[in-house]
Amino acid sequence: MLKIDKLNVYYGGIHALDDVSVEVNTGEIVTIIGANGAGKSTLLRTISGLVRATSGKVSFESRDIKRMSPHQVVESGIVHAPEGRRVFSELTVDQNLRLGAYLRKDREQMDEDLARVFQLFPRLEERRWQIAGTLSGGEQQMLCIGRALMSRPKLLLLDEPSMGLAPVLVQEIYREIEEIRKHTTILLVEQNAYQALKTADRGYVLETGRIVMEAPCRELLRNPEVKKAYLGK
């Protein structure tokens, strides 16, 4: 579905991504783990067209998307739920969700998808007319993911969905991610390596812009180097 081949990205003189190759197959959850500053968010921002690659290939469903603008990437079926939630804080929950479908014209199906988001996140329905900036951190994360789902993505890019959340909310968010995977392929970036590896099918370890390891998640969970560096064991 998604194939990234020898991707290079520079920020000024900093080599942020160095010959990165990643593949995501339809129906998978694939996770990228690594320390803060390793280049995880840069990778997602490059896929979604927010950052330009210097070289390498990014293809989605056998189509080259490396030079596409962000709205063209969304039209192709890739939607990014960014780090830090980035909700429209002065708009209501309902308005935020409908903005997620801004490229769509199928009004009736949009209403069906809104109902599905409320089924997935009942708390959002309870707060449908509440201003998004007054929601808790966990509720804003639900809103960020729900807004992304309103575009009916084929591939959902999730950037640090557990960041800053209490453990009980992290478990709740990941239960919803397990539901989402029934219909949507997911590329997941996380600093919470244990939770990510428990949830995903395959994982890549990114260190200072380079992929240093790739394996099924069950193998990464047992790997001594991964345990020492990312799992606190």
CATH superfamily: P-loop containing nucleotide triphosphate hydrolases
Terminus-to-terminus distance: 34 Å
* Biggest sheet overview: 6 strands, mixed
What pattern of helices and strands is seen along the backbone?
EEEHEEHEHHHHEHEHEEHH
Alpha plus pi helix count:
10
Catalogue the unreliable spans.
none
Q: What is the domain tally?
A: 1
Q: How are strands sequenced across the largest beta sheet?
A: 6-7-8-3-9-10
Describe the structure.
With 233 residues, the protein is of the alpha/beta class. The chain has one domain: P-loop containing nucleotide triphosphate hydrolases (Rossmann fold, 3-Layer(aba) Sandwich), CATH 3.40.50.300. It contains 10 helices and 10 strands. It has helices at residues 40-47, 70-76, 93-99, 107-120, 122-126, 137-149, 167-180, 193-199, 217-222, 224-231; strands at residues 2-11, 14-24, 29-33, 55-60, 63-64, 78-81, 155-159, 185-190, 202-207, 210-216. Strands 6-7-8-3-9-10 form a 6-stranded mixed β-sheet, sandwiched between helices. β1 and β2 form a beta hairpin. α3 (93-99) runs parallel beside α6 (137-149). The chain is globular and about 45 Å long. The two termini are 34 Å apart.
Provide key terms for this protein.
Rossmann fold; six-stranded mixed beta sheet; 233 residues; 10 helices; 38% helix; globular; alpha/beta; four-stranded antiparallel beta sheet
Strands, helices and their partners?
Elements: E1 2-11, E2 14-24, E3 29-33, H1 40-47, E4 55-60, E5 63-64, H2 70-76, E6 78-81, H3 93-99, H4 107-120, H5 122-126, H6 137-149, E7 155-159, H7 167-180, E8 185-190, H8 193-199, E9 202-207, E10 210-216, H9 217-222, H10 224-231
Parallel strand pairs: 3-8, 3-9, 6-7, 7-8
Antiparallel strand pairs: 1-2, 1-4, 4-5, 9-10
